[in-house]
Amino acid sequence: MATPAGVDEQELLQPRSSSSSEEEEVMEQQRGNIKEPLLEHSTIDLRRHAANTTSQVASVGSNLCPIESLDYELIENDVLNQDWRSRGRAAILQYVFLKWTFCLFIGILAGAVGFFNNLAVENIAGRKFVTVSKLMLANKHWTAFWVFAGSNLALLTFATAITAFVSTAAGGSGIPEVKAYLNGVDAPDIFSLRTLVVKIVGTIAAVSSSLHVGKADPMVHIGACIGAMVGQGGSRKYRMTCRWLRYFKNDRDRRDLVTCGAAAGVAAALRAPVGGVLFALESLSSWWRSALIWRAFFTTAVVAVTLRALTDICGRGNCWLYGKGGLITYDVTADTVAYRLADLPPVILLGVIGGVLGSLYNVLMVKVLHVCSLVNERGRAHRLLLAAAVSICISCCLFGLPWLAPCRPCSNKDCSTIDHPGGFENFQCPPEHYNDLASLFFNTNDDTIRKLYGRGTNDDFQKSSIMVTFGASYVLGILSYGVVAAPFGLFVPIMLTGASYGRLVGMAMGSDANLDHGLFAVLGSASFLGGTMRMTVSVCVIMLELTNDLLLLPLVMLVLLISKTVADAFNPNIYDLILRLKGLPYIEDHAEPYMRQLTVSDVVAGPLRTFNGVEKVGNVVHILKTTGHHAFPVIDEPPFSSSPVLYGLILRAHLLSLLKKKRFLLTRSVAGSDAAGQFGADELGKRGSGKHDRVEDVEVSAEEMEMFVDLHPFTNSSPYTVVETMSLAKALILFREMGLRHLLIVPKSSSRAPVVGILTRHDFMAEHIFGLHPFLRKSRWKRLRFQRSTLRRLCRTCLMWASS
């Protein structure tokens, strides 16, 4: 349903059922109380009087939190217009210079954090694997198991504990929250300093705990945190209130910096600067322009230079177990990659398998997340118990399964893992032999992927070991991510799972395929990424940057297109599914056909709260205290105009700033021309994410309550408006493309009240619309996807075909 007063936040934040008659009676009484005659403000009764009962909360990390929307619209009022007119050429140059300086700063910090994360994981996990290898060589098998399982349990428990007790917003990958923020959704603490610290430390501990997770996704959130903190526009608490920084006290500039930070995070995690820009463009950002691409590209270039400088230092042997690294993580360069027409069928098969397995992966992941969220809702103790149970289960699997694999002679392979993690593991085998399954399990995910991608390694692994690796990585990846209370990501585990079944397909083809098994592993990773995340261009470039093999481009493009097409027939991508599971009100880039059957007036609700151009202070305070609305239409009535006319829209934050300043009038008259000059633009600037002024903090005396305040200088006199007969589908496109928070609805006839209602983000949500118009459920647009009955028939057909 639509939000009363057309705002996206209201005072009732908890979910309520719209079918309860008792609740409707209570709401009617509340409306009656608001319409007290002593208040001199306008109340417009609309056709529909049901309040928007949809929940205004979403899951942020492991907790339910109230959510709000962001003001991406450019506010035009007298105060801000005067500030812009007063700026000279020097101020404009300062503004542009600061933007590039902030991008430079973001790139350096993101590159340094990415390097530090990789260094910490390699050393912590490497020390663990070296200790276990020494114990295994000494035939102390049980001691090795307890060291392995105990260290994993301690690391994961620590990561879960700091997330649960310090910042729950740091849990999970963070990509859904970043994607929602760039779409216009603001949630508390997602970009705070403590979230950043917990994200860094928790990711290192969780990835080092042998959990089947990665550090790439959290780096996107970390980069976004850095961008958001840089764009806070200064801090009064820490006395960082430089005049230059006030230019960035708005959501528009912060959105650009967060976008650059997210791109830098991808570049730092995957050593893919161009892929980072494309990832932010294709998967994260809802609004883009050429200038932003240029700044994001500059930021990721700074990340690449920073990483190169830091890895060169480690190349001299100053970082212990940390490898030489560099921008090319999995170097599989070849002078030629010869493939024939006969090699295309297995590549196409890889794409189909990736699409089917990817869509199934998404379904199972959502179900596990839903079950684990029920456990996490019981409290911190249950989150720690869940993490401990998952850690013990995974440790038993990783340590127990290699005992099933036979030993193989080392021949020309480096079987010495002492003080050199990343090689082939001896495990329980005699000297000069190695356990291929243990070599895949007892390494970091990066080292395992490097082994699977390796050229000329067709005889290094048995088919049974690759099958076990695929099954374990597929299942353990889903199980690992279910521990949503700790920070980690999906990208690298999905690459590993895809690489294992890609190599398996190459083994199955045998001599019939001209491609190396390592190339099949690369294509398998691409197909599984396309099947789960549904990204094409960015994944294609990232894979090429990771492997340094441009000759693979045609095959990677083909397998990505096929896997995405197949997977789209079943369900959306994994990040969209997690967005829905969290309850974040994300606006898609398309309007569903049932929206064309409705006009904007069909979803508005009342009563609408408005202010006069010159309003009584007591009325302003009362409405701010009794509602949670974040914007109010300002209507001029006689004697300030010949007839009621919409002057504009004023924000709640600006009203609070006006009340704090206490520039009140004794009579109901328009303030002088110098009223706007009494305020600075920084006083009307938007505070950081999740920070808001409260009306309870404003002290107004009884005498001041009887005074008046002129709202004209602080009102946005050019808000976006639509006529009441516009289709809801057309309004949605305008709302998303312009990054709006409020969209005013004006009547078609001039004889009616000057404003009909206000559309906000929640008014475009499907559950709101279906609550008002249940008959539309049957006509809801859906993509061409297979239903469960179709899937069952398809599975039965495949089984019958395989058995025959």
Low-pLDDT sequence parts: 1-55
Strand neighbour order, sheet with most strands:
9-11-12
Using DSSP, what is the number of strands?
Answer: 16
Q: What Rg, in angstroms, do the CA atoms define?
A: 29 Å
How much is the average pLDDT? 81
Shape: elongated
Helix content: 40-55%
Strand proportion, as a percent range, falls in 5-15%
- What is the terminal separation in angstroms? 54 Å
- The number of helical runs is 26
Largest sheet: 3 strands, mixed
Which structural category fits the helices and strands?
A: mainly alpha
List the helices and strands and how they pair.
Layout: H1 21-34, E1 43-44, E2 57-60, E3 63-66, E4 68-69, H2 78-86, H3 89-137, H4 141-165, H5 175-183, E5 185-186, H6 193-208, H7 216-230, H8 251-270, H9 273-284, H10 290-318, H11 344-376, H12 380-400, E6 407-409, E7 433-435, H13 436-441, H14 445-453, H15 463-481, H16 491-509, H17 517-533, H18 537-547, H19 553-568, H20 574-582, E8 608-609, E9 611-612, E10 614-616, H21 617-626, E11 631-636, E12 645-651, H22 652-661, H23 702-705, E13 708-710, E14 721-723, H24 728-737, E15 743-746, E16 757-759, H25 766-772, H26 788-803
Helix pairs in contact: 3-4, 3-6, 3-7, 3-8, 3-10, 4-6, 4-12, 5-20, 6-7, 7-8, 8-9, 8-10, 9-10, 9-18, 11-15, 11-17, 11-19, 11-20, 12-15, 14-16, 15-16, 16-17, 17-18, 17-19, 18-19
